[in-house]
């Protein structure tokens, strides 16, 4: 049996929206010049799911690639996200408007809260002229505290994060603002990113007309997030996976060069990226691999079903106590983003 080409997202009014199982990631920590050609190559290779965010700073390049591809807009699934200093309810729509303007699109298919905490912007005017990307302008950083870290808007942060700092907070008002964007037809579905089980449990009682359709988190064999993925499935929430190839650990180790991964890829006549994306889809999750190399872009989407023994061998690579995490901004941001 072949792996699924699409998963289903819960949408408003009990409707279902199909999302391509394999997405193409557009995050970068350098200049945006790579993005247009890479996205265009991805679309030509058959990708129809683009994972984007205001903070990536490549919205214009993505929009250009979509137009140059000649592929009808309705055939491309576009995800984007708002950064924490747009998280106050009155600013969520502004961020989406900035994304749509830069991409020259009328709507996104999935609009996510990038993180479960809110940061204080310098001002509404600063947000209106803020530009995302790796340059980290003052407008993007927002207000900072005495230590130079983002000043936290505890009131609109998740209850878990606020409580850890001895404060009170709730993401519910922000979620209500996100629901309104579906009513306005600016987003087809909405969801969250980097939310823990506790964060989602705190939010679920406040979900009214539009369901939580997705939680985007870091997932790969080193960090399979089994409990969080299972919880999401039980609640009809799709898990999309950033960093499906993992990053480089402090000791220099990379998942792409792991001996077990290389051995299994060779056994299945796959590239290592293709193997890891196949593992993710076979688990019922949506991987968002990224590459700027045309050959790898083409191979990463060619997923195939793996034997049970191969899935178990990849599962066995999991590291204990979250040690497999390769994306962690907690120290930089001064808030406890992850649960122990």
Automatic annotation (TrEMBL):
Domain NADP-dependent oxidoreductase span(s) in chain numbering: 23-317
SUPFAM superfamilies: NAD(P)-linked oxidoreductase (SSF51430)
Residues of the site described as Lowers pKa of active site Tyr: 81
Tagged with keyword Protein biosynthesis: no
One Pfam family of this chain: Aldo_ket_red
Keywords recorded for this protein, A-Z: NADP, Oxidoreductase
Amino acids binding substrate: 114
Annotated catalytic residues: 56
Region of interest: Disordered: 130-152
CDD domains named among the record's database cross-references: AKR_AKR1-5-like
Biased composition (Basic and acidic residues): 136-152
Gene Ontology MF annotations: oxidoreductase activity, acting on the CH-OH group of donors, NAD or NADP as acceptor
Keyword Protein biosynthesis: no
Recorded superkingdom: Eukaryota
Family: Belongs to the aldo/keto reductase family.
This protein's name: Aldo/keto reductase
Organism per entry: Mollisia scopiformis (Conifer needle endophyte fungus)
